[in-house]
User: Fold this.
Amino acid sequence: MPEGPVAKKPASPAGDPFAALPDAILQHILSFLPAQPAVRTCVLARRWRRLWEGMPGLRITAANAPEPPCAPDDLVSSGELRDGAPLDSCEFLFDVREDADVPHVNLWIRHVIRCQVRRLKLSITREDDPSGICFHVDNLPLVSRHLRRLELYDTELNDSFLDFSGCPGLEELVIYNGGFERAKRISSKSVKRLSVLDCSFNERRRTLIDVPSLISLQLEDPWDRTPVLGSMPLLVAASVRLGTGSITSLDWCYSSDSGIANGTSKNKSVLLNGLSEAKSLVLIAESRKFILKRDVKCCPIFTKLKTLLINDYWCVPPDFRELACLLEHSPVLEKLTIQIFSKGPEHKVEINGSYSPMEGSAAISENLRIIEVKCEVVDEGVLKVLDFLQTLNIGYLTMSICLALYISAFCDHICK
Amino acid sequence: MEVDKGKGEAEETRKVAEADRDTVTLKSSDGKLFEVSKEAAARLSTVLAGMIAGGSIDDNGTDLKQIGSEALENVVDYCNKHANSIPSAALISSSISFNTAPFKEPEEWERKFVDRLSHDALFDLVEAANFLGMERLLDVTCHKISEMMKGKSPDQIREVFNIKNDYTKEELEEIRQELAWAFYDD
Assistant:
């Protein structure tokens, strides 16, 4: 005689679906919760009593509480929180209202570091602050053998914090909307992947990015002085985008470069020297940015560069000096993509050409096989670029493709 | 894709045919058969990837005795949907990607996928994903369960999941005092 509704799973007649799952899975579930509700699960039943202590991830957010998650004091003083159990990841995602709480939160960060956290994300805002100050990290270096990935959002940084020599295992560093006004350098011997996005730098001196083990770099829209890249012999891929979308910048052509304060001479390369070992490069800049154009005057040789993506910044008639210089200094280049007056990723027109080595000039890479020109319309500007490529005897378009291109461009003009 | 030497020619031909197939057949605990793209299975499940590489995939249905047919159907469904959604995923990670990237929020289709599951089906799927070493599916399903716990009091969580409270009143009071900071706004 079946009693009540037929149980779907006779294995767990009590109906507690967690019963069938191992502790590690329960802890995995808890690590998606903000810290406070995760800890609160300890009262559910005996089995849950100590689960939170061993959960791999800690998300400290204000999502479920109107106030900051809990006075940071309490978490630190609530004993040796997570005694001994190493943390896989920890995220700080909340707003700090009171200045007085800043040191507490910093203590908290130190505490999490002591818990051997491997991946740490700080996204701490100061929304109520009338002057719009970011969260200031304290002026001390981080020391951890365990930290592998660090993400910093909206954080005001300083030299001591950005000296990662105390974190020999740190491999990935992401800094978004960071404040480098007081920071002269980022330094790490171990970081392999670095993203510096939408960060503001000092108005007078250039911050040095000294990360010699870097494999991939993403530098987008630095405000004020573009940072200087140190030597990166292991670099594989780098993407540099300057000025597209940033509101202010001192590195525009109309401002004379007075960044000599820290001894940067006018002829010293800011970006290109550091990028010279890359196999793959994206170099996009807004036309008023002068840094790359100045850099290219003392252009390094890109001895390993295979693929290069550039925009119209590099294509300045009548002599296309910068583009020519880049190509002449890229002896093993295989693929060149030029985005003209088009930010992508959608391009209305794509012209693919293949390079025929027979016609090549000695100065250009013999391996250059593919050239793509992406543009919204084939206008005069594009035609000038194509003309230039021809006069330079790159001959990247075989005659027939070239002809087709001119015809389509011509039709385009007629249609208008 | 190794082919055993020294066996009968017919056998060899069959093996070759099997190796060339781009799907694998999986058999649930209750004997139902499901086909899944070999590529997706190998990419999403470390266990299936190991079995495919090690040649222990059975053409007549690889036995997965720990997984019921409903859960296996969901696993296969997830693999197929995942295979179809690759272009969008590739687009998102067009910039430099990080190897040990942290958990990414579920995509729209993943949300829909777990939202339509019953409690039982969801938990069975967690078990299956765990068993098959499907990291992303495990993340997405565990994330869903965490969402179901979010914003609820301990009492409400017990009710939703049928968790039996085996504490005494005194014990509970003791814990609440010990971890007062976590119960601040209760």
Observations:
- The longest strand of chain B covers residues 23-27.
- Residues 1-8, 12-16, 87-101 of chain B have pLDDT under 50 and may be disordered.
